[in-house]
């Protein structure tokens, strides 16, 4: 790192759990972020500010006025622009050290798997279960850790799935695909704006910790009720019949 980077990241370098070695690991890391909305805004901003070397942003949506209540990478003058382009501009201004690649499309299963294989970690910042299950399948197939976040109303949840250890659970073990079919979206149920930022920032924190070997929420579901600030933690068991992460002997 040069003198400017040492100054930029100095508050992390002062932490013995991170230091120069950890910062260098972040500089060399590649993180795939699916979704450039509310969760992706908070997660992307903190990952870029922290010095992640490469961020890959995937989202096919355009900025709308109703997004601006919580999607802080975007602004009023960018309404109508592709979210990944708006996000790229904001993140590049925040930290020009970061390489940012964008996909303004819903990735096919093959393309998603290819990106998952190239990434050190995936963050699921999407807002629908079909996408979450597609991301999970790619994570398991590529053996790439996955940080999953979701917010609806005043309720938030966070979990980390690492497919590398034996007998590790995946997202499908927690939420079987058929059981998710009738769950609504933010546009149908509303969402408390600060909670999106909290969960998105927490996703970034879990990603940064995992990359430097600090304890994370692996195989743990964290539930947060923003009305009461009450949290719960639940251990996620592996489903021996899971069609995604368990294969017949």
Commentary on this structure:
The structure is a single chain. This protein has 249 residues and is α/β, with parallel strands linked by helices. It has one domain: Rossmann fold, CATH 3.40.50.720. It has helices at 3-8, 10-13, 19-28, 38-50, 83-94, 109-118, 129-142, 171-174, 186-189, 193-211; strands at residues 30-34, 54-58, 99-103, 121-124, 146-152, 155-161, 220-225, 230-235. The chain has an 8-stranded mixed beta sheet with strand order 3-2-1-4-5-6-7-8, with helices on both faces. The chain is globular, with a radius of gyration of 17 Å. The N and C termini lie far apart (48 Å).
> Which CATH top level class fits?
Alpha Beta
Proportion in β-strands: 15-25%
Instruction: Kindly report the CATH topology.
Output: Rossmann fold
Q: Shape, please?
A: globular
**What structural category arises from helix and sheet content?**
alpha/beta
Strands in their spatial order, largest beta sheet: 3-2-1-4-5-6-7-8
Mean pLDDT: 95
The profile of the biggest β sheet is: 8 strands, mixed
CATH homologous superfamily - what is it? Answer: NAD(P)-binding Rossmann-like Domain
Number of helices: 10
- Poorly predicted segments: none
The helical percent reads 25-40%
Based on CA atoms alone, the radius of gyration comes out at: 17 Å
The tally of strands reads 8
Order of helices and strands: HHHEHEHEHEHEEHHHEE
Domain count: the total is 1
Q: State the end-to-end distance.
A: 48 Å
In the CATH hierarchy, the architecture is 3-Layer(aba) Sandwich
């Amino acid at each position: 790192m040069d003198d400017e980077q040492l100054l930029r990241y100095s508050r992390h370098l002062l932490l013995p759990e991170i230091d120069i070695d950890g910062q260098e690991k972040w500089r060399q890391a590649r993180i795939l972020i699916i979704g450039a909305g509310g969760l992706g805004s908070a997660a992307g901003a903190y990952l870029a500010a922290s010095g992640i070397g490469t961020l890959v942003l995937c989202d096919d949506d355009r900025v709308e006025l109703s997004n601006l209540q919580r999607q802080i990478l975007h602004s009023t003058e960018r309404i109508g622009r592709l979210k990944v382009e708006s996000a790229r501009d904001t993140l590049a201004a925040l930290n020009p050290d970061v390489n940012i690649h964008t996909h303004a499309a819903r990735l096919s299963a093959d393309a998603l798997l290819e990106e998952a294989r190239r990434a050190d970690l995936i963050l699921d910042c999407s807002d629908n279960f079909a996408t979450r299950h597609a991301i999970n399948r790619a994570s398991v197939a590529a053996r790439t850790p996955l940080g999953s976040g979701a917010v609806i109303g005043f309720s938030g949840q966070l979990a980390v799935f690492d497919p590398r250890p034996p007998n590790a659970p995946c997202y499908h073990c927690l939420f079987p695909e058929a059981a998710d079919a009738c769950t609504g979206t933010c546009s149908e149920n509303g969402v408390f704006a600060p909670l999106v930022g909290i969960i998105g920032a927490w996703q970034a924190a879990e990603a940064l910790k995992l990359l430097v070997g600090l304890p994370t929420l692996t195989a743990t579901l964290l539930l947060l009720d923003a009305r009461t600030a009450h949290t719960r933690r639940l251990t996620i068991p592996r489903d021996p019949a899971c069609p995604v992460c368990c294969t017949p002997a």
